[in-house]
Every structure is written in C-alpha cells, then in structure tokens.
Amino acid sequence: MSNHILLIEPDSLTASHIQEHLRLRGFNVVWKNNAQDAISAADTRMPNLIIMEMLLAAHSGVEFLYELRSYTEWQKVPVIIFSHLRLDTLNLTTKSLDKLGVSAYLYKPETSLRRLGQRVSIVMPSATS
Amino acid sequence: MDSRRDDSAMHQSLVFGQDSLFSSLAEYIKTPFVQISYASELLSDTTNPVAAQTLIQSIALSSQGALRLLDNYLLYQSLQKAGQLALEPISLNAILYDAAHVLQPYATSLGCELRVQLDHKYEPVIADRQVLRSAFVSLGNSFIEAATFQQETKSPLVSFVVRRRSGSLNTGVFTNGQSPTTQQLQRAKALQGKAHQPMPEFMNSTGVGMFIADALFSQLNTTMKVAQDKGLRGLAATFLPSQQLQLV
Q1: What is the complex's ipTM, to 2 decimals?
Q2: What is the pTM of this model?
Q3: Which among B31, B41, B201 has the least Cβ separation from residue A113?
C-alpha cells in the first residue's frame, strides 16, 4: 500500500475533518497530535507522506522536520506543511524548505480541503491512480 | 510633570496589554473558523444524513466557542473604556454551575469530564456577575482545550472548585492533566501577543482564554494564581466573602 499518510495536527476537530476528506479520496490516514507520537508512529509504520502543522506543543515544526531528516530511513518521505502560520512569519526560506524536503507549504486559512487533497494526489500519484 | 509621565506610561502599558491580548485572540480565532470552513466543505459533499448531522453539530460548537471568546474579550475591552463594574452579592457556587453548564457541550464533544465540586453553600461575594462568569467560562474553556489536547491524559477531567482557605474563598479551575507552573505562567504573560505558543508545555494555542480570564479577574481586584486541589492542578483566584451579608 502506498497511500499511507501520517497527519500531525494538534486540533482534534480539524484533524478529523482532514482525515475524513482524505479517506474519501482513498488515502489511509493515521493522526497524531504531537511530534513525539508522530515519530513513534513513523517508526511503527513508514508513511508515504507526512502532512503537518508547524504549531506543535513542546517541539516546533521546524525542530520536528530537522529531527525527521536526521534519520536515514525518513530522509525521502515527502512532507506537506499545512499550517495556521504564514510562511513569511517563519524564519524559513523556500530554499531551506527544499533542503528539508518540503513538497508544499499550504496556509490553512486559505486552503480548502479539496485543494489539500489535490496537492496530496500530486505528491502521491500512485495512490489515486 | 512626573505624575503626567506616570499616567502616560500607565496608558501605554494598558494599550500594549490590549494590543497583545487582541493579537493572541486574532491568532487563536483562526482555529474555529478553519474548523467551520472544513466542516462546511465536508457537509456540501456528504449525502449521509448522520454524517451531516454530526458536521452541523461541530459547526455549532465551533461557532459558539468563537463567539464566547469574542464576547469575553469585548467585555474586558468595555471595562477598560468605561471602568464601571455592576457590583452585587453573588454566589460563587451559582457562577461555577453556570460556567460549567455553558461549557458542558464543548467538553462532551472533546471527551472531557466536567465537574463542579462544592463542599458547602458559601457566603456571597461582592463582584460583577457578568465579569466573574465570563472569567470562569474563559478559564474553563482553556483548561478543557488543554486537557484534551495532552494525549498522555487518558481520561481528561476539568473541575470547577471552591474551597475556604483562612477566611477567603479560593475559586478555580483544576485538571488531572498538565497545568502551568508559576514560572510558566509568568513567562506566558510576558510572551502574550508575541508568541504563537506562550505555554507550549500546556497547550498548543495562544491560550488567549486564559489571558482574558486573567484580565477579567484583575478587574475584580484579584489575581489568578497556580493552585492545587486534591491531586488536581490548576489556577484559582481568591475572593473575600462579604462580612455584612453573612449577618443577614
């Protein structure tokens, strides 16, 4: 199965809406609300894609990304950032996002579930074909 | 001259306080609006009446949460402008039951148990009913959110409690999950409006409900402090029971 998504989203209601939409598009989504549990979940089952919020408790999203990429087996897992924070409010450039293997940065208040689903399908074409 | 400078410094500090509270509110309010937007999108796609009903309920809860927060902020802002409290004898027990009643649907939707623990029928306190009620609703809202967010808390519990402590009434909101320490609370107040997560150990949001509660308590000349109650941790404010009303 190449449709396994790890969703890291601190808000349970938002997470359930994202999960439901992606499930209807044929994706299998595992949801975790914090970085530590997300690392454990990725360890248990390698995701084909990670969708993550940058505002996480205890860890910042950037810290999580650096930690994720420090493990050889997770260096190639694509990541979509789906966040309440605009990219320009972070100390990150598009170049550094590329370095961290971020496939897309989507600002949540301006992104519909449909658009998120479309981006996921672009990153994981084999899952929906 | 000096007193004019003091007045100006105090005015600037109040304006900064309001600005930072507003920034926290604006950042926080994105979450319920995103929830509503996504639920509406799912609703427009579903043909299942049960799923539709669940989504409609979630839209109602998200809207109510956002409106509650905006109302409490506006109450604080109006107090800042008018500075007039409608003081009257109030039963803390009744205020806590009322706050818990308002928050019950939100707590249930997140799987959080909500309790009101009152050992006695305490004497009334002199306060502004709306301000006190809004402060406890804001504080309770933040604790429910935090307790249900902390995944290590398997059965999240939030409890409204009144206890007598050496002549005064300690009234607060407690949880079996994480609650800020005095140091974390002080740091959070300093970071309010500047950080997206001023209390990352406790909650993932700006925690604006807690700051609004703090601001409302300060209008009543009391302070929100870190407290403990029977193994639960939380935040409480102290009120003096009205001596005159005890005699009536």
Answers
A1: 0.91
A2: 0.82
A3: B41
